[in-house]
Amino acid sequence: RVLEFDLSSVVRNMAGPSNPHKRLPTSALHEHGIADEDMLAAARAEEAEGLLPDGAVIIAAITSCTNTSNPRNVVAAGLLAKKANELGLVRKPWVKTSFAPGSKVAKLYLEEAGLLSELEKLGFGIVAYACTTCNGMSGALDPVIQQEIIERDLYATAVLSGNRNFDGRIHPYAKQAFLASPPLVVAYAIAGTVRFDIEQDVLGTDKNGNPITLKDLWPSDEEIDAIVASSVKPEQFKQIYIPMFDLGTIEEAKSPLYDWRPMSTYIRRPPYWEGALAGERTLKGMRPLAILPDNITTDHLSPSNAILLNSAAGEYLAKMGLPEEDFNSYATHRGDHLTAQRATFANPQLVNEMAVVDGKVQKGSLARVEPEGKVMRMWEAIESYMTRKQNLIIVAGADYGQGSSRDWAAKGVRLAGVEVIVAEGFERIHRTNLVGMGVLPVEFKAGTTRLTLGLDGTETFDIEGELSPRCDLALVIRHKSGEETRVPVTCRLDTAAEVGVYEAGGVLQRFAKDFLGQA
Length: 519
Description:
By secondary structure, this protein is of the alpha/beta class. The protein has helices at 37-48, 71-86, 105-113, 116-121, 143-152, 182-191, 214-217, 221-231, 234-241, 298-301, 312-319, 337-340, 378-388, 407-415, 428-436, 496-504, 507-515, and strands at residues 13-15, 23-25, 57-62, 96-99, 157-160, 176-179, 204-205, 211-212, 287-291, 351-357, 360-363, 366-369, 374-377, 392-395, 418-423, 440-444, 460-464, 472-478, 484-491. It contains 17 helices and 19 strands.
């Protein structure tokens, strides 16, 4: 095949809002409803009154994800910052800025080029190395700014050079987030709002009163290449990475067995070998923990962001004696199932269609316990069902489990007692993770959905049929009225090996049996 590609058609892009695969050309912000003259005028009027503007960028972060691995992108950000400083531009005071490279080498070549100080002057000093903002670890906002966002229910946003921007992931008070290259992140810190047409609008004026736009700041390829050629050196990589592999200081442990600490909130002996988790299960009388719409992500299933004090995990950590400033993120506690399982469906943007109050579906980490019909926090609902030893099912729409491949998105629902996920479709890696945890993925036939079946969460469910790869099974729905509906569904154990893993209780149990010669 011969493919023709017009390089002149390539433009600056962002991604968002809310989805990393939603390409957003910066030249098309107006037609996408992100920014226009009226929006910016309204935002600037609010700013003039001392208020946070509509679309306020409360977080602008150059993060370790994806494109900061490329020195050209980081150098471009440094050069843009240098030109902004020379012209007298500053970041808006409500923007929390940070720079967290994926490697300490970035600091060395930026210092070599004289660009680190330029980034620091605009607020992009190095705060850490590796995952920060993109994993929900941007830290606390200024309390005054946070209070204004809450009181005005402000549409606040984040702009970061990461690879995920699902709602609720970056920060609880950033309603949406946009992915951008490092130099664009710096530009948005100066603009202060996403209502700004970053290609056209005026960022400020120079000392002569001339307007400054993005094209006046954006470095040329020649400028970037010259810095990379002169300042990014092999010696810098050797200086950082060779000492990392010096094992001479490591002491040999006294015992090959790990000394489990009963009060640890970071690593705890997992319960994957016990009871139903070891393969002792029934697929009868399951109650729905949640009925979910399309596009449920692994961030909905198990968020990785910062743990808040009023969350189930935060309350648990407080009881364990941790001060709030040491809560850290859900991701850092995934070695402790007692903390990590409290992240199950803890996303504040979750829409569980069973969580209905006064006829309206509520957004948040909520569930409805049946048969009482009581809406409560998701973790309390899970605890109630665990106490009753009630096995559970989740009913969902299309593309269930998209996003980051997160093991706790499968582990969390399994520990909650979920036996089956029945959905219109699964993201491929998450489906494999479910099988590995001993959760049965089942797919509706085309034309059948939770909506066509009229499910409201008062039902109980059975799965009937002999398991084999992609076989037909029967989903038996018993309604509150006493009626029974039988729905053909497809077993999404796609191979004989997956059937073996599932029947063993999960991948750990399967490997253990193989190791012990009990296959």
